[in-house]
Amino acid sequence: MAPRTISDFIHSLPKTEIHIHAEATVSFDSYFALNRKYGMDPSLKGPADFRKLLAMDSLGAMIKNFLYLQTLFRAPEDFALVVPDVEAYARRNNVRYMETFVAPSMVLKQGGIDFKGILDPLVEGFDRLASSGGPDVRLIVDVSRTFGPENAKRNVDHVLRYLGNRSTDRVIGIGLGGSEAGNPCAPYKAVFAAAREAGLRVVAHAGEEVGPESIRDAVAELGAERIGHGTSAVQDPALMDLLAERAIPLEVCPASNVITGKYVRRYEEHPLRAFFDRGMLVTLNTDDPVLFEVELDEEFRRVAEKLAFDRAGIVKLLENGIRATFMDEAGKKAARERLAAAAKALA
Ligand SMILES: [Zn+2]
SS3 letters for the chain? Predict the structure, then answer.
């Protein structure tokens, strides 16, 4: 039986998500509990008051807010709070597989917790979730370009030491997030080469607040396997063709781009549609669901309504999402079959 509405259709399809930050998938309830625990801001009287912190109109403001939220995480049990919130998000949106960023830099700088204290609660929590039939959540460590290449190198060393001491397939790679403007990729080249050499998957935010040259930079200097955002690629047809030919996935996050407002002011003007029509491997993601107050089902509803994606287009975006993950081939095959069966049942 065909579902009544596009919302039902979207929700009923199993999804993957590959550009989402764990600390920004935490609920206002959890933020508030941490705020109270550490006596951070007594003017916040309840979870809903956190919303006022999240008003933003630029990427700079967003990064500032995000760094502030990270200062609320100071102990392993704080990171354990992330797991049920990520699980609830995934279940609300029928997300079956997720690759989420976790950003240790600010937390480690603050002191009082080591890398293992950050990762262990996440690895153990997501292991438990997967083994009980819940969503399969993998971690990509954001080594950050806000704090410079030495800090990034320390983060990669932490990851490699962690994986040397613990056999886990939860931690799959590194990403370069943080401030893109004024921070080109060249100083991070050696760090990323070492990570690739060690078998880590590598991705980078690029083309979110800097032009297409930043995307070329991430591919050439870092060997980035996926591009986070990639919005400014629309200014460079030769780059779009290169990304399409090499099937380099773009982790597109339209709501995030509209709110931070660098290249896109209105959802209807987002280049996702142009990228898709050009045959680029585009995927749909939310970036920071709590900061942008958007979840994945809603993001799909918006592309259906504002960027004219019909049901076949939505399924194609979800197929791209599976292809762009770092799952092994058996995992991708199973996810494709699950998606195809759900789409068929809804036809
Ligand atoms: Zn991001």
Answer: CCCCCHHHHHHHCCEEEEEEEHHHCCCHHHHHHHHHHCCCCCCCCCHHHHHHHCCCCCHHHHHHHHHHHHCCCCCHHHHHCHHHHHHHHHHHCCEEEEEEEECCHHHHHHCCCCHHHHHHHHHHHHHHHHHCCCCEEEEEEECCCCCHHHHHHHHHHHHHHHHHHCCCCCEEEEEECCCCCCCCCHHHHHHHHHHHHCCCEEEEEECCCCCHHHHHHHHHHHCCCEEEECHHHHHCHHHHHHHHHCCCCEEECHHHHHHHCCCCCCHHHCCHHHHHHCCCCEEECCECHHHHCCCHHHHHHHHHHHCCCCHHHHHHHHHHHHHHCCCCHHHHHHHHHHHHHHHHHHC
Task: Summarize pLDDT for 118-140 with one digit per residue, the tens.
Answer: 999 999 999 999 999 999 999 99
pTM: 0.96
Distance between Cα 178 and ligand 1 center (Å): 8
Provide the annotated active-site residues.
208
The Å distance, Cα 100 to ligand 1 centre, comes to: 10
Q: pLDDT digits over 70-89, tens only?
A: 889 999 999 999 999 999 99
CB atoms within 5 A of ion ligand 1 belong to 287
How far is the centre of ligand 1, averaged over its atoms, from the C-alpha of 345 (Å)?
Answer: 33
Q: What is the pLDDT of residues 247-271, one digit of tens each?
A: 999 999 999 999 989 999 999 999 9
How many A from CA of 255 to the centre of ligand 1? 12
All domains of the chain in start order, with CATH: 6-346 (3.20.20.140)
